[in-house]
Amino acid sequence: MSSIRTVGRSLSRLPAELPPELRGPDWVQANPILIQAHLDRALEMPTGGWYVVDGSREIGARPRSYTIAGRELVAWRVDGELRIAPDACPHMGARLSDGHVREGRLVCPWHGLELGNGKHGAWCPLESYDDGVLAWIRIPDDQGAPTARPIVSPRPDTFLDSVMRMEAACEPRDVIANRLDPWHGVYYHPHTFKRLRVIGLLDDRLVVRVVYGFSDRLGIEVDATFHCPDARTITMTIVDGEGTGSVVETHTTPLTDGRTAIIEATLATSERPGFRGALKAAGLIRPFILRSQRKLWVEDAAYAERTYELRQAARRERNSQ
């Protein structure tokens, strides 16, 4: 690992003084008590009632079904405008996601009832929002007062974005806990992370110096922070090195008990002149970013699921006593 060559500006010199908790081997630094303290702080953050549904590109004019926080929903667009509503027809309960859209109205597949943007009995579209990268829905929860817009971290002005969505047998907290343990990266993802060192611990964020490997001998070194803008999101922001200002937002959406959607948005930016060309070729580049995202999350989902299994087992043991 020590022989890997980094491209771009080198950041390999460590800060003059590391706090005591960052001076031991990785398995000591990855202190479960410390990680739990960061997790507890994150879980207390307000959400504004907003949940990520999917990437903006995944929802079009054709109705699509989702389950969010135990609610069956249907999402579609009318002239590009996002709409999300209960998936059960107010007439006799048919799945509206099996229907179609005609002249801007959702048509029930059973009896042809047409539903628009207004109420029909107890049926009514929910508050939704599209930020151009992600589609959101607002469902009141106990994580603070509702907000007019989702709570997100600062994003770059110009970016190439990619959104990956997958499901895991765990709770949102298990996904957040995975991200609050950056120490596992080199050991669990050696194909991607060639070197990684936590170089700072702030009240609300971790500071990490990491080498992303292009090959066994070539990589790129950056400094990044991890912090939680709300209780269901953790954001990595590159603060020094290649791609400064780029962010990776990992959003977690509860589906049903013990089932969570992981929606990760990568917003990459660069000051290099060639980045303009990359933006023009976004459609060709995006599949490669998605492949990398999914490869990491197949592994990290297993980590989150294992965390969930252990917590459930401990809960069952306590209940049996």
Overall shape: it is globular
Q: What's the total number of strands?
A: 17
Q: What is the CATH H-level superfamily of the largest domain? A: START domain
Work out the radius of gyration.
22 Å
Q: Estimate percent helicity.
A: 10-25%
> What is the ordering of alpha helices and beta strands?
EHHEEEEEEEEEEHHEEEEEEHH
The structural domain count equals 2
How would you classify the quaternary structure?
single chain
CATH class category of the largest domain: Alpha Beta
Which architecture of the largest domain does the CATH hierarchy give at level 2? 2-Layer Sandwich
Pick out the low-confidence regions: none
Please specify the SSE layout and strand pairing.
Elements lengths: L4 E3 L18 H4 L2 H12 L6 E6 L8 E5 L2 E8 L2 E6 L13 E3 L2 E3 L6 E2 L12 E3 L3 E5 L21 E9 L3 H8 L5 H4 L4 E9 L3 E9 L4 E13 L2 E9 L5 E10 L2 E10 L6 H6 L1 H39 L1
What does this molecule look like?
With 321 residues, the chain is α+β, with helices and mostly antiparallel strands. It folds into two domains: 5-46 and 152-320, START domain (Alpha-D-Glucose-1,6-Bisphosphate, Chain A, domain 4); 51-138, Rieske Iron-sulfur Protein. Helix content is 23%, strand content 35%. The chain has six helices and 17 strands. The protein has helices at residues 26-29, 32-43, 172-179, 185-188, 275-280, 282-320; strands at residues 5-7, 50-55, 64-68, 71-78, 81-86, 100-102, 105-107, 114-115, 128-130, 134-138, 160-168, 193-201, 205-213, 218-230, 233-241, 247-256, 259-268. The strands form four sheets. Strands 1, 11, 12, 13, 14, 15, 16 and 17 form an eight-stranded mixed β-sheet that branches. A hairpin with a 2-residue loop joins strand 3 and strand 4. The radius of gyration is 22 Å and the shape is globular. The protein starts with a strand and ends with a helix. The model has no long low-confidence stretch (mean pLDDT 92).
